[in-house]
Amino acid sequence: MSKIIGAQAIINSLINEGVDVIFGIPGGTVIPLFDVIYDTPEIKFILCRHEQGAVHMADGYARTTGKAGVVIVTSGPGATNTVTGILNAYMDSIPMVIFTGQVALPQIGNDSFQEADTVGITRPITKHNYLVTDANDLPRIVKEAFHITSTGRPGPVLIDIPFDIQRLEIDYECPKNISIRGYNPKYEGHPQQIERVANVITKSKRPVIYSGGGVILSNASEELRELVRKSQIPVTSTLLGLGAFPETDTLSLGMLGMHGTWYSNKAVQECDLLICIGARFDNRITGNVQKFSPNSIKIHIDIDPTNIGKVVETKYPIVGDIKRVLKKLIPKVSKLDTKSWLKTIYGWKMEHPLKYEHNDVIKPQYVIEKIYEFTKGDAIISTSVGQHQMWVAQYYKFTKPRTLLSSGGLGTMGYGFPAAIGAAVGNPDKVVFSISGDGSFQMNLQELATAVRSGLNVKVCIMNNGYLGMVRQWQDLFYNKRYSGVELKDCNPDFVKLAESYGAVGLRAENTSDVDEVLKKAMEINNIPVLIDFKIEEEENVYPMIPAGRSMDEIMDR
Amino acid sequence: MRHTISILVENKSGVFTRIGGLFSARGFNLDGISVGPTEDNSVSRLTIVTHGNDKIIEQVNKQLNKLIEVIKVIDLTLEDHVERELALIKVSCNSETRSEIMQIVNIFRANIVDISARTLTIEVTGIVDKVQALINLLRHFGIREVARTGAIALKREYERT
Fold it and tell me: For position B158, what pLDDT does the model report?
């Protein structure tokens, strides 16, 4: 046991947890922590330009590496700026530990300078949070935080640390065991229920697997592939589940839901058994719940019991870790005779493929297809939120888990670019593409500085249509083209010059014929961010589309 | 349907807010809440009264269990249990009405715990319906103030013979 100050105890605990990178911004109440970081070469500190960016970076790092992301920010505005990023991570179940500074204990409650009730503000958007009131608790709290964030259904954990706590001397001993009596996630699925589910699957005639982000979080991609190979059940995926099952496989139906493929939605609608694995029947998937997959028996495998029965009634729930449940399920499932069902689905695939019109004006779908071609599907792709996000989901063929970063639950514009930076920090050997709209990119473009400073291999592709495109699309389709508050083109910056002013490389594609060349150029540049401004068709819409709250009967397609 | 849910939680600051916040964030009904220490210093017991259909109550139970500082959730509605609420009722009186009020108090096996020239303060314990019935009966005398604890409850035990 040794005597050290609280700040040192925190950093020691981080090293014990295997943390090698921290994202953040310093400030008055975390200077003691930064003073320790100064002497800690084991941990790389990435200085961000806005706390929201820091949280999204930690999120991108966590999604691609599977390790919890770590953020340090100061009190008050530093803490409140993290809120969007934390909720984003909470809704997508991303492991992350956020350290916020707090005013000194005696000052709490006095409306002190840069004081905020951070635990109060973040209580509903974290898996758990702590206000440290005794420096001796620090080693235990940090240990608990890392345990809670990454086990069960992952989610962000926040630790609020008053300034004086960081400077108090404590006897430091890294706790070996933790026991939290109110926290016991269930990992093993109920054996008899697994038996029953195997029987139901074997008896089904028209089964569909509906796979979600939980498969990736549980590292169960291999098991999912094995289950599908063995049973020959077609697979459709949520946005966050893309990559768990290779989209190049004939059994893949691509994404389902509002902008999912026609045939995946049709298959879900017509199936007699819907096997939901690590997804939660979000309203962007179900539309009108009453009309969603009306004739199917539902199986639902999820680690979080609150997800089960929340939206649709599930006849066969299994609460447990997907990897472990699938491992037990696979040997009990035999090959199904799905030939005629698959034939029907292939018919739908032929009749209603994803399609767009090709011409001289750049089509965003074409750019995505080209990026897939250039990266051979081997890159990490991040998106922000909006039309470009759906085009990526539709036209990039994800074949590996942890290669797509997208804000699914919260739908945070501005997520993609910082998330890509976090991914690049965690995966220095990979090419990372940040695909954004012109609107989304401008919500966190200040992080260009962070990317340039770290010499990261990030390719920023802006699908520049001069609009907040998804809102424009809704106004086009449902509000009689009354475009209200969506026009950006009259005052967009020159993105190429903007990139250059930060020290990044800026490129532009104005016509379809430029696309190949700029992408080729971008791929040749290493260790310096490249921004490509793609001037795309301004009023291109995303199809197919099931209008919000509607069902497959009302799907709109080209 | 009305449900009485007993929740054992870590005796730490902020737990109460977590539970209250959960109810408002998820749109669950919170008809009553009471909190107090238990036989174990590190544990508090919250008793919550809520209502909703089976699907909602299932979510209430699951969401409560999901909170890290919640140790145990027991839906007492599904079991035989004892439930009590305590209320203090300050009612107006004068020399004419005082004895009538005292009769009512006796019938309810309630107690008078404070008396002044113009008021009586009554202490009553019982199931929520009994407390409400007494309040209803006293209303026409003029109720000045009411303080209610909200229901608390424990599971009944049976000795096996």
Answer: 84
Packing angle between helix A387-395 and helix A364-375, nearest 10 degrees? 50
What is the C-alpha separation between A308 and A133, in angstroms, rounded? 37
Q: How far is B60 from chain A (nearest CA, A)?
A: 9
- What are the sequence ranges of the domains in chain A? 2-169, 191-351, 364-535
Query: In this structure, which amino acid lies at residue A68?
Result: A
Q: Is A306 on the interface with B (CB under 8 A)?
A: yes
pLDDT digits (tens, 9 = 90+) for A371-426: 999 999 899 999 999 999 999 999 999 999 999 999 999 999 999 999 999 999 99
What are the domain boundaries of chain B?
A: 2-79, 82-155
Judge whether B110 and B134 are in contact, CB under 8 Å: yes
Query: From 3.90.1170.40, 3.40.640.10, 3.30.70.330, 3.30.70.1150, which CATH number describes the B82-155 domain?
Result: 3.30.70.1150
From CA A189, how far away is CA A318, in angstroms rounded? 6
Query: For the domain bounded by B2-79, which CATH number is listed?
Result: 3.30.70.260
Give the tens place of pLDDT for each residue, B77-126.
Answer: 989 999 999 999 999 999 999 999 999 999 999 999 999 999 999 999 99
Instruction: Kindly report whether the peptide bond that precedes residue A544 is cis, defined as omega within 30 degrees of 0.
Output: yes
ipTM above 0.85, yes or no: yes
Rg (CA), chain A: 24
Does the beta-carbon distance from B62 to A306 stay under 8 Å?
A: yes
Token pair of A95 as six digits: 């492991």
Q: What is the CATH number of domain A364-535?
A: 3.40.50.970
Residues in chain B closer than 8 A to A148 (CB atoms) = 68
Strand, coil or helix: A443: coil
Establish if A119 touches chain B: CB-CB under 8 angstroms: yes
Q: Is B117 on the interface with A (CB under 8 A)?
A: no
Measured distance CA(A48)–CA(A451) in Å, rounded: 9
CATH superfamily of A2-169: Thiamin diphosphate (ThDP)-binding fold, Pyr/PP domains (3.40.50.970)
Tell me how long chain A is: 558
Question: Which residues from A are below 8 Å from B65, CB to CB?
Answer: 305
